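--- STAGE predict ---
source: upstream dedup step, 1 unique chain passed
mode: sequence only
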Amino acid sequence: MLQRRVYFLVLFFSLFLGNLSPSYAQPSNGPGAPPTLKSILKESSQFISEGHPESAIRQLEAAADRGLHHPDLSFNRGLAYQRRAQSADFHQGDWGQAIAGFAETLQLRPHDAEAEKAILGSQLQVAKKSKNDPLASNAASLGLIERALLALNPFYLLLGAALGSLVFSLGQVVRWSNDEHKRLIGGLTLAIGALVLVTSAGLAGARALVFSDTQLAITISPKTPLLDGYGRSIEGTQPLTEGTILHVGAADDAWLPLAGFGEKKQVGAATVRQVPLANP
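--- STAGE serialize ---
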């Protein structure tokens, strides 16, 4: 009797799981299934090559809305916006959207030479378009200190801090020597180690303070005004041109704060496109 019950239970669960497995274990290939990465790349590339950037943009934006991120998708999106910006059917913000696509490519695939070249080419076109506009500014949104910090590689800063700590410890050991000459060398070694340690750790800390909770954003409005902490235009500042690369923090209502020291500056969230982080 017990064996029969066990048999029926095994049979029931086998049939139950067998009915469920096709819907969970196998991807649906039906007509309602979303397009695959491969098909999107192929079709969008074909749209672009055949002179239909609008169709490619619709397809690639739909993929981005689904949360599908891939460097080739981002590059194709940037290229589609670039092609439309160069056509008679251009839309305001196309150059900024193009730069955002190429910048996203670099986030997902650093040192992509084609993406870097495409950003420079797009920025050059924006500069040509706005060169006669006295109210537009393509100046960097970061100050000199912030740009210097951003240029520093965090890995080398941490490596410098580790080496400084090692040299500092070695200097302490040598200072314990009974030999006066060795104690002098130990003191000098200790001082050098402390200097390297404090400098490297300090720079790494300052860089993290400014950029740790920020992400890239690209202006997609022809003129993006700089706002103060109350959302008012900052007097004496010119609006940023389309395609300006920013580093922004978390959204505060309808505004995005800019990374940096000193006076708080922000831009309207609707005037930029944020670039997803490589590892969200």
